[in-house]
Amino acid sequence: MDSFFKLKATVFLLMLSMASACSQDEEVCSDAEISAPRIILVVGQSNTHAGLGLDPNIDIPENGIYQLGRFENNNCIIQATEPLDHHTKSEGRIGFALTFAKLLKQQQNQRDILIVPCGFGGTGFMDNRWNKGDDLYEDAVDRMNAVKEKYPDGEMTAILWHQGETDVILGNHNYQNDLDTFIGNLRNDLGDDSIPFILGGMVPYWVEQAVDRQQQQQLIKETADRLGVVGYADPTAPTVIEKTDNTFDEIHFDAAGQRELGQRYFQQFLLLTE
């Protein structure tokens, strides 16, 4: 009899332990209350979010602008606060998405905005991170589809993409096809072939240092000519985006450059949608 009760006690403790573990793994969200949001997907590598020089007086959150969180707030709807919850976010660094979202909010103030940040530093097509079936690609699609399911009356407003550095460093000679295929696959998997897709050029100073980078920049720029409803945020026009010291962290825009880039992304959005 004693062995029977010992067995029951053991089974009970095991079940209690398993229940506790499951409870810890569950995502508990206190979602912000939003409705019918305009949804912005941000994808690419570090220049989606690595602009050094966060200014607490400029890069402030704004009412009505939210993000899909990661880390301790995974899949929770929280306020969009810099640095946004990209895969590789770093304190003191910002991207262009919040500037874009603030301008979008000014355009149509009555709508909430939800940013889905999915940038990951040092990634591309050639290292098998952004092709259909790769981890980062599938993460972005899964998160967007989860948001669409949560807010069926929401609007997929734009895809903002900044990438290219990793593939030129790795010598990807198939970059144009990889990029065009990525855009087509992503739109298809999100169920909308006409989502405005805007991509930005790489840091001009860094590009100027090598011919292969210049060729890559041209391929990125010409995407707007090859595919429909695609815009190009040009870091060289109307002025060249530069830093006080272009040689410092030369592959990345700084925070001021990211804010300017956000404005240029938004201008392209207006051209595609108005």
SSE layout and pairing:
Elements: H1 2-25, E1 38-44, E2 51-52, E3 65-68, E4 77-79, E5 93-94, H2 97-107, E6 113-117, H3 135-150, E7 155-162, H4 165-169, H5 175-189, E8 197-200, H6 204-208, H7 211-221, H8 223-226, E9 230-233, H9 255-273
Parallel strand pairs: 1-6, 1-7, 3-6, 7-8, 8-9
Antiparallel strand pairs: 2-5, 3-4
Write the CATH architecture name: 3-Layer(aba) Sandwich
Number of domains: 1
Please report the number of helical segments.
Answer: 9
Q: Spell out the helices and strands N to C.
A: HEEEEEHEHEHHEHHHEH
Structural class: alpha/beta
- Beta-strand proportion: 5-15%
Give the integer mean of the pLDDT values.
Answer: 91
Largest sheet: 7 strands, mixed
Provide a descriptive summary of the structure in words.
The chain is α/β, with parallel strands linked by helices and 274 residues long. The protein has a single domain, classed as 3-Layer(aba) Sandwich (Rossmann fold), CATH 3.40.50.1110. It is 40% helix and 14% strand. It contains 9 helices and 9 strands. The strands form 2 sheets. It has a 7-stranded mixed beta sheet, with helices on both faces. The chain has a two-stranded antiparallel ribbon with strand order 2-5. Strand 3 and strand 4 form a beta hairpin. Helix 2 crosses helix 9. The protein is globular, with a radius of gyration of 21 Å. The N terminus is likely disordered.
